[in-house]
Amino acid sequence: MEAQTVFYLTDAAEATPDFLQELEYGLSDLFQAFCREHFTFEDPLDYPGLRLIAVRTPQELEDALFGAQDDRHILSEAGCGCCLFLLDDELGGRPLFEHAIAGLPIPTWFLTFFPAIPKVLVTRPGHAKLHLPSRRWSQKPFSVLANPVRHRERLGHLFASFWLPRFWDALRQYVRRRAGTAWHTPGHNNGNAFERSPFLHGFHDAFSSMIFRTDLSVSVESLGDLSDPEGRSPLSQAQRLASEIFGTAQSCFVTNGTSTSNKAMLMTLLRPGEVVLLDRNCHKSVHHAVVMAGAVPRYLPARFNARLGVWGPVALEDLRAELDRAAALPEAARPKMLVITTCTYEGILYPVWEIGRLCERAGLLFYADEAWAPYLAFHPYYTRTLEDGVARRYNAVSEVGGAHLSVQSTHKALAAFSQASMIHVSNRFKALLETDASRPYRWLRRRFHLHGHGSYEKFSHDLHEMLRYWHSTSPHYPTLATLDIAGVQMRLEGLRLLEERLHWVADFQRRVADLVGRPIHECIVGLRAIVGEDPKWKEQGYFHDPLKMILAFRDAASCDAFRRLLHRSHIQWEKATPVTVLFLVTVGTVREHFEYLFRCIRQMRDAIGLPERPPADADVLERAVAGQPVVLPRDAALCDGELVPLAQSEGRIASQLLVPYPPGIPVFIPGLRITRPMIQLILDVIARCGADAVHGLFVRGKRPFVEVLNRDEEDRVHRLDPAP
């Protein structure tokens, strides 16, 4: 088991080899004791120790962390294990924060490349007092490090502030020491209903007792209540720790998935009749939220890659054009929000720093659905250095710029149970309400005001009130516990977990390309295959996440045969199009998975490659997603409507969503006028995957129907003015 790494930046005379050795022993022993106390449930485990690496200059620190001198995305072996930085408050007689790394002030450099790793400022008597840049920084006097055994309690508290999963620890302690006879929900009562049944005992054994013993009730007040997040309960403290780890003003746990997160957030922020700019290929839950909020969606131009059957990103020039158009409108008619999906289902990451800048200039909130990439904040691979030398991060909510708000499906890629999700609110959004007086956001301060001033406290109250509309009052406590530990795990070992998988993917791509005899970009779908040859996309900062691994096939028949081979080999993919198969690489993916998949590819090597031409109906597919609503979606959704045969619905106004799933992108949306390309796209999905693959479809016999406004409703309903 490899040791975790602590980097100590010091040029102090006291930092002799003997001193550093004693410090390493002391910290390592305390760390292992901390892990045994807080991560063990029954049998003690062999936890890794800590390895101390001392460096004397900021440049030495950077070189020690990264494995290649010319690439600040690949970590060294020691860098992969980094879990803590110790930093002397002075170097070379100058305060630490007067130094720079790679042209960036030290606090900014850490925020950019290692934001989640805890930093401890080591202070000495007589040195100037430094202001800590954020909650992710702590400070301790040098005397504590000089004698870690003597100060084991203080260091133990420090470790707990970094890595203690508050809710899981309290839940574990309750089950082990305090739980007794239960006279509360749930009805299985610590698993007794399963364990003592001659028929269900096997069900109990399959899951083991802990999943039942931790499935408790809000009646256990000592653990906290998801519907009442204030106070000092373990659940509240766990959410505050998540906020610190993810670098936010506030983070909220959600146990009903990111679908619920989207609905609660958008219904908190939007008001009836307000315009919201929407990424056309956003998840159906965003469309649901817009319908329920009574907002007016303005769909941004969608790019559907018909050759591969995948969606492309919104172009920056289209976004700029839309914002320029909005600037000419009266203030009350201007859009209030932009919603973008980043990363997309196919792995495209947007230049969130530039989109954030454009939105700030126009007075829009930038809301990012980051469901598919909750890990972006935990590795320097997901950074981009711009032409001016400034580095930016791809995670949407960041302390160095980006979106105002984001939601993440923690369960999709991190160590969490299904439906585990988080809401993240940026520090910048909080500043817009409390300290920023800019004119473009006056509407936001009026919306969430207290005593005549913008109030973040009022926003937070409204958000939690809306969450109470959606949360169950009986959340699944094991799911909450996984939300707690998922962030802690990434803070402790996220660098190593991601570095390993990025290397595995790169190695796998090379092996496939060598086997097939084609370049990687013709075997594995990336940015170039999705958006085309134009270099502007890469230059503007669009990027493909390699952990969304997409195999391309030369034709639909070959892809279908490969999926049948995967079924026979007991390999399940994430989603597929007629000519691609997407494999999702997560923190739980192990190296053997790549070998099993490679064995299948060897059997069909001649089928791998980009399709030679798009299907004949490519232009039809493009037109299927080109419409704008003619009726307010909420009005259309609340009409009585009528069912008509799908094939005969052209020209009618949809009153429901039809959603091919996965990935969950609607084709029919309430308020849209139905076109022949929309109908054809749904019929093609039915023919290829069956009617069950289209959520919302009504089938009688074998005939598909869709709900539309009836003729009387079409005459009565208020029509939206066409956008100029």
UniProtKB/TrEMBL annotation:
The keyword Lyase is assigned to this record: yes
GO MF entries: carboxy-lyase activity
Coiled coil: none
Cofactors that this protein relies on: pyridoxal 5'-phosphate
Protein's UniProt keywords contain Lyase: yes
Entry keyword set: Decarboxylase, Lyase, Pyridoxal phosphate
Family: Belongs to the Orn/Lys/Arg decarboxylase class-I family.
Gene3D superfamilies (UniProt xref): Orn/Lys/Arg decarboxylase, C-terminal domain, Type I PLP-dependent aspartate aminotransferase-like (Major domain)
Annotated protein name in UniProt: Orn/Lys/Arg decarboxylases family 1 pyridoxal-P attachment site domain-containing protein
PROSITE patterns attached to this UniProt entry: OKR_DC_1
Span of domain Orn/Lys/Arg decarboxylases family 1 pyridoxal-P attachment site: 407-421
Superkingdom: Bacteria
Matches recorded under InterPro entries: Orn/Lys/Arg_deCO2ase_major_dom (IPR000310), Orn_Lys_Arg_decarboxylase-I (IPR052357), Prn/Lys/Arg_de-COase_C (IPR008286), PyrdxlP-dep_Trfase (IPR015424), PyrdxlP-dep_Trfase_major (IPR015421)
Lineage: Bacteria, Pseudomonadati, Lentisphaerota, Lentisphaeria, Lentisphaerales
